[in-house]
Structures are given as structure tokens and as C-alpha cells.
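W.,

You were right to be curious about this one. When I first looked at the sequence I had no strong expectations either way, so I just let the prediction run and decided to look at it fresh. Below is the sequence, 695 residues in total, followed by the output.
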Amino acid sequence: MSEETLPGTVQPPRPPSVPPPPPEFRVDVGNNQNSKIIVAAGSVTMTSKPQLPVTDIPQTDLDAVRQAWVEVSVRDERVLTASEAIGRLTGGGPRLAVVAGPPGYGKRAAGIKALWEVSQAEERSRGQALRLQEIVPDWERPGSPDIAVLPDEPGTCYLLDVAAEIGSWQKPGYVAEQLVSYSEELKFSGSFLVVIADEHGWPETVSGTVANVVARATARPSAHRVARAHLEYVHRRPDRIRWLNAASADAGSAGEAAHLLSDSSRPADAARLATTLSSADDSPEGLKKALSSFQEWCADVKDVFTKTEDKPDDRALLISSLFLNGKDALTVQDGARTLLGESPETNVRTILTGPDLTARLTAMGAEVNGRTVSLDHKSGYARAVLLHLWQQRADIHPHLLRWLDTITAPKEPGADRLAAIGDLLVELAVAENDIRVVKQIHAWIDNGDNSPGHRKLIARVLTVAAEADTLGAEVRALLLDSAQDESEAVATVVALVCQGEFAQHYPRQALVRLRHILDRPNPDEAVRTAQEALRDIAARDGQLSRVWSTVIKWATEKKHLAGHRAFLSLLDPRVDPYVLQVMLAAAEQKKDIREALVDGWNAALADTRVAADCRQLLTAWAEMRKTADVPTELMTEIINQVVLEHLYATPVSALIFGEPGVADGEAVIDLRKDLRLPPALSSLLSTHERASVES
């Protein structure tokens, strides 16, 4: 599936501790004094489609399937999901197994187990294990996955989880057939693929081949067995298995944690319980705290809400404590009154009646040290209260969100807690799969605080939500709509999201959103931030080829303003010469790269909206020629071709003849001398230069 790529491209000087790359990945930028060896962070090609990003499967997941695998159900029957997946992978058909079934049946673990066993079998037979990697489903159009961009490296076991998105595929039958065809090709590279699907999304009725790759999860492993195995073999705490022992004639009473798992418990819950027990203090109090934490404080929260059925002011005090955690008690009390829509009490008799404020807060589960109210001593308690409130008091939703608007406004008590409040709301949104909560966070972008810090906080919270397993797809769609929003602040925040971890995991989707921002009519802060984000993505390991192929298509095929801005921004050495050095080194080796650079310039110069940017970049290139960090002759040749195509375009005429009132530097004058202009124009330029000197 992959096409020939250019091995020689660039990396500007990085810290000396980085080991040198293999010789075949070096490009000598010659014909320059003090020339340097510039190494590519990734191949640059004009033909291949950039593949989807991959990540290593976490070691903790591998440890679980290697050391603590459980394939026995609560009925002591064998759970066949993993073994069936292995059979699909090695049965002589496509190198594909689709693990399908409802959530909570250990599908991901079964998929990893199957890949692990296949890898080990390859090591036994061929002497080398296969790599285990997870594909990030960073489709440009999530509803229409392009199977051509799936990776196909030799000797790799791939995991692709599409359970959250397969229901939105517009042509599931077509995509499934393409996946089968792709996996048939994996035979030639010695690789395998496991796809994780939901219960009904995989279109088995399309054909027998599509149906035959399915390994259906129909039973889940015993949660009790999973928890015990993880404690003993993953966490190395076999002494704590006693907390999980069931009641029996031999063991006597049941272990303190045994009741937390039932026949319907998910394997993931069992693994989480084992992790919680492994890190608990081995004391009655430590165990009690660990159990409450695992239960997400359900008993405590239920008890608090039961005791306050006729005390809305106390419940409001608890809610205020969640979001104003760390504030003084009076501020928390004021927040509670604002939530209730009440003014401070003026009746002295009422003021002196009832328990003290500290006692009320303590009864709600808070700690009060001096004047400060805190819930930090109960990790996860705030989330548990919020989840209970969201589930049991649905009518409070709009009132709570409006109240949060009020307390997080500039100069209000929650303004400096926006990050923590945002994190808490994202936890709620993910747990409840509720996009309304994320939209509320999104609404804070334009709440009157235009500071860079405020926007970065919102961007960080939206990034977390965009990468959530189930909710993420809706949040990514929200970001796509927001990238086209007229609001400068909203578009700027989306650009910030695309500059962070989101771009690491979803680079293709980040580029789509940046294109919309770069198409804004005016070069405002959103556009500048998008340009920074684009350069940042291009400078990351292995991402330049993806960015370059995308940008050059925008610029030369689509004629987008975004493409012209992106092209000029990427090749601007004033911010960072990295991309320019890469592309010129690549252009020395590949004719199509050189032609693409010229085509990009021609397209940008034809767009009068970026004339000033073109002029500035031509000058910057002239300055760069003097640094000896680029192939001077090639750079001059590219500029020469561009000049001959656009002699009368304002940026080119300014380069050749200058502009009134602008004193060109030595680098620009030297470039003029090296350009191979038509004789008549060259003579005119010499006359112009002499006149300039004489004046």
C-alpha cells in the first residue's frame, strides 16, 4: 500500500545528545560554506497518503494478558473470545479478527491477548516477536473511513478500536470489505489486525468473508477471578487476596471487598478493584477508604442526600464546596446562596438558629481547616456527588450550568478555579456521555475573559473531552463546527486544541480544523494561532510528510486561502528554519518536491490576499541564503523560476526593484545579482541599482 518515499529530508540541529541517524537517512546540503548534515524526522513524498498514527499498546495491558489472563466465566465455562480471534487471524484467510459484542465483555483485552499469542507464535517459529501497536482512528471523515491510510509496516500486530464510531459509518458494508482486502494484503508483510466493534455495527450480512472474520464476545470472564489474578500476578500482592475471598465453610466469613464484585461485574471493574486494593494501607481504616474510593463513595453520598432531604440549603452548600474547593467557608456559603437565588440572611433570630457553618460543612463530607473548605481528603468524592446530582436531580441541570457561568465569570470566586472546574465537568460529561456539559465549557470561551491563560485552560479541557472513548466523537464534531465559527476567540481556542495533544493523536483531524481557521478572511489572532499550530505539528517526529502533502494540496489543487497561508507559514525561516531546510534538502533529491515548491509559490503569488506575506517571505529567503544552512543554488533556482512567472506581481516587483521608502538589505541585493533574469529586465535592474546607489 505504501509508495516510494524520499529517505533524505531534514532536521535542523537538535541537542547533541541525540544519536546520529543511519547513513541512509542523511542528506548532505552541499555547495555551501559551513554546510551541515541535516537529517529528516520523516520522509517527504508527493505520492503516498500519510498513514494513520499508531501508539504502542501500554505495558500494563500487555502484563495483564501475559501474566493474569482469565478465560473462565462465572459459570466455570471457558470464555472463547480470545481463542476464536486467534483462529480468525491464523486460519488461512484474511489476517483479520473482528471482536464484536456488548460493552463490558473484555473485548479489548481479548483482542490484545490474541495479538500477543500470535506474536509469540511468530517468535517461536521465526525467532522474532511482532510489534504490538494500536491504530488511532484519525480519519479525515470519521463517517467514511479511508482504509488506504491504515499502516502496513512489516511484522506488526495492529489493534483498531472502532466500537464508538462504527455506528456512524455511512457505508459500513463497503468499509468492511475494504478492511478485509487490506488484511489480505497484510499476509505479504507478516502483519495482523484485530478490530474492536460494538454489538451490531459489523455488517456480517454483506458476505460470507465479512462474516467469517468475526469473533463474538458472548460471555465475560469472572470478575472475581480477574481481580484475584491481577492482585497476585500483576501487582504482586497475593496477601491481599484474602480481602476478595468469598464466604465458605473453610474460609469463614467473606473478605471485606468480596461484595464489591458480582456475576455481572465487568472485567475492567475487577482490574480497577485490584489496583485499588494493591495500593491501600493494610489497616482497617486504609481498607475502608480504598473500598469507598472504588465504590466512588456511593454509600457516603447516598447517606448525605438521605439526611438532607428537607435541607436544600445544606445540599447547596455541598454543591458549592465541590466547585469552590479550597476557598474559605464564607465564600462557599455565598456560592450556595447564589445557587439558591437567595440573598444573605438579615433576620438575627434565624442567623443564630441551627448548627454552625463548620458543622454543616463537615456533615456534608468536607474538611474545614481554619477558614478553608476542602474535599481533597476524599479522592473522587466530588465526582461522586456530582454524578449523583446529575442522575437523580435532572431538573437541576440548566440551573447548575447557569450558576457555574456566574461563579466562573471574571473576578468571581470560581474564576481562578476554571481549570479544576473544567476537569470535574469533563469527568461528568465522559461518565454520563453528555455533550451538553462540554458545550457549557465551550460557552465559557466568550465569557468576557480574553486572556491567553483563559483560552489555554478551555483548550486543555476540550482536548481531554475530545480524546474520551465514547464522548470524544461528538466533541471532535463540535470542534469542527467551532473551527468555522465567526468568533475570533472560539476559533483561537480550537487552534490551541490543535496545537496540543489532540494533534499528536488525531493529526489528520487537527489539520482539517486548522484549514477552516486559516480560511478566515482576516489574519486575526485565530489565524496566527493556527499558523503556529501548523508549524508545531510539522516539527513533530514523523509528521512533516503528512502536513506537507496536505498543505500543498490545499494550495495548488484546492486554491484555498488556507493553503496559501499554510504554505508561506511553513516555509518561513524567521520563526523556525526546520521545515524550509527539510523541504529544500528533499527538493535536491526529488524533482516532484522541487516542482511542488515552485507550484506552491506560484499559487500564493496569484492570490493578492497574501501579497504582503509573499513579499516578506521572499525577503526572508534572501536572508536565509546567507546563513549557509540551505542549498544556495537550489534556493536561487526556485526563486528564479517564481520570479519569471510573476514579473509583474507586486511581491516579485518589490523584490526586484524595491518599494518606495523601503531600504532593502544586503541579502536582497545579493539575491538580485544571482537571479537569471531576461536580458532586457536584467539591464533595467542594473540601471535601477546604479541609480539607487548614486541617489
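Here's what jumped out at me. The CA atoms of residues 419 and 502 lie 18 Å apart. And, maybe more interesting for your project: The longest strand covers residues 156-161.

Coffee later to discuss?

I.
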